[in-house]
Design a protein that fits this description.
CATH class of the largest domain: Alpha Beta
Membrane topology: Peripheral membrane protein
Distance between the termini: 40 Å
Strand order of the largest sheet: 6-7-8-3-9-10
Shape: globular
Order of helices and strands: EEEHEEHEHHHHHEHEHEEH
CATH topology of the largest domain: Rossmann fold
Keywords: ATP-binding, Cell membrane, Membrane, Nucleotide-binding, Translocase, Transport
Largest sheet: 6 strands, mixed
CATH superfamily of the largest domain: P-loop containing nucleotide triphosphate hydrolases
GO molecular function: ABC-type phosphonate transporter activity; ATP binding; ATP hydrolysis activity
Structural class: alpha/beta
Number of strands: 10
InterPro entries: AAA+_ATPase, ABC_transporter-like_ATP-bd, ABC_transporter-like_CS, ABC_transpr_PhnC, MetN_ABC_transporter-like, P-loop_NTPase
Number of helices: 10
Protein name: Phosphonate ABC transporter ATP-binding protein
Length: about 250
Amino acid sequence: MSILQVQNLKARYAQTGDDILKGISFNVAEGDFYAIIGPSGAGKSTLIRCINRLVEPSEGSVSLFGQELTRLSARELRKTRRHIGMIFQEFNLVNRMSVMDNVLSGRLGYVGTTRSLFKLFPRSDIQRALELLDRVSLIDHVDKRADQLSGGQRQRVGIARALMQDPQLLLLDEPTASLDPKISRDVMQLIRDTARDLGIPVLCNIHDVALAKEFCNRILGLQSGRMMFDGKTADLADSDLERIYELEVL
């Protein structure tokens, strides 16, 4: 069953500029951990951000569980974004806030800004946050400020915060780019195992092809905004990688 359907997606940053995405089409099915790979400037991050309309597509269709996202009003989009968790390269935590408060901020779309400012979260939300912090091995850091954590720990907070949304889809925008190789692998394994346990499909923009091949079951290869490969990870050949990366300047 397709969870996310993307059809002929195009995007540009200026009305008269060139397309950054040039007619991308693919489907994310239940249980997929989908990697988007390609050289710098290929459009990977733009594609991820078009899904939840942080970047507005210029043409094409994005459908989540049959709901067309590109036609939603601002109010409808806010409601829909509750169900799309996002994990960022630079973590996007509030440094002066505690680990617990950063995780609880994942419920902003449900409780509202005013209640969150006064920390008026339901007991069920607090219990869920504690469960998720235990899952990401940060239960002993609940009261620490975010800026007291290592990079790997900060990304774990970001994972827990995204999961607090009870997402139907997880979007990952270079989740390991700021981490060293060992921590990167640990983070990818945590995301894969957690998504599998909770039944959440994942779409991941990632620069590390080795990590993509190890943890993702499907690969989307982009080059200059065009789709060069879409298929099972096991079917990705060296010749496909050469085509995807042939224009990259080393």
